[in-house]
TrEMBL record:
<keyword id="KW-0964">Secreted</keyword>
<dbReference type="GO" id="GO:0030449">
    <property type="term" value="P:regulation of complement activation"/>
</dbReference>
<keyword id="KW-0227">DNA damage</keyword>
<keyword id="KW-0805">Transcription regulation</keyword>
<feature type="region of interest" description="Disordered">
    <location>
        <begin position="30"/>
        <end position="60"/>
    </location>
</feature>
<dbReference type="GO" id="GO:0005759">
    <property type="term" value="C:mitochondrial matrix"/>
</dbReference>
<dbReference type="GO" id="GO:0006915">
    <property type="term" value="P:apoptotic process"/>
</dbReference>
<dbReference type="GO" id="GO:0005576">
    <property type="term" value="C:extracellular region"/>
</dbReference>
<keyword id="KW-0053">Apoptosis</keyword>
<dbReference type="GO" id="GO:0030984">
    <property type="term" value="F:kininogen binding"/>
</dbReference>
<keyword id="KW-0472">Membrane</keyword>
<keyword id="KW-0007">Acetylation</keyword>
<dbReference type="GO" id="GO:0048025">
    <property type="term" value="P:negative regulation of mRNA splicing, via spliceosome"/>
</dbReference>
<keyword id="KW-0180">Complement pathway</keyword>
<keyword id="KW-0539">Nucleus</keyword>
<keyword id="KW-0508">mRNA splicing</keyword>
<keyword id="KW-0804">Transcription</keyword>
Amino acid sequence: ISGGWELEVHGTEAKLVRKIAGEKITVTFNINNSIPPSPEEEEETQGEQKPDEQEPDITSTPNFVVEVIKDDTKQTLVLDCHYPEDEVGQEGEDESDIFTIREVSFQPTGESDWKETNYTLNTDSLDWALYDHLMDFLADRGVDNTFADELIELSTALEHQEYIKFLEDLKSFVKCQ
């Protein structure tokens, strides 16, 4: 991923970390359940199969969490982001963001478990001007459409790698007597 991000991978969970101007930005995502169903799969269940069509590329579009920690504070700004299913893979709309912020909250810095008692703002009810400022805030820290595209590529590669490993493990497990 461009922009000086450091990658850590633990099984199906990945973490990207970047430090800029007194801030630490962390993006975490999990590749489990990150491949949306394709429209072709839905059509096949209705019995309409077209044999000449090429298989679509399988892409992993995981939900991801952005945490921004400022050096001098005891709070972490947490933004829960996702790829809306109708936006992924649509080219041409230059102005449109390919990911959205679903929720925003503050959490205590250094705590591994988030507190359910902290207020979480659902962006469905958020003023659009404030939402745009939050998107600009993320873009200023390197989390923009380019980052989101590269995250899809990274996630897809990691998912493919885990899938192959799973198939190999399954093969050796079934062979074992």
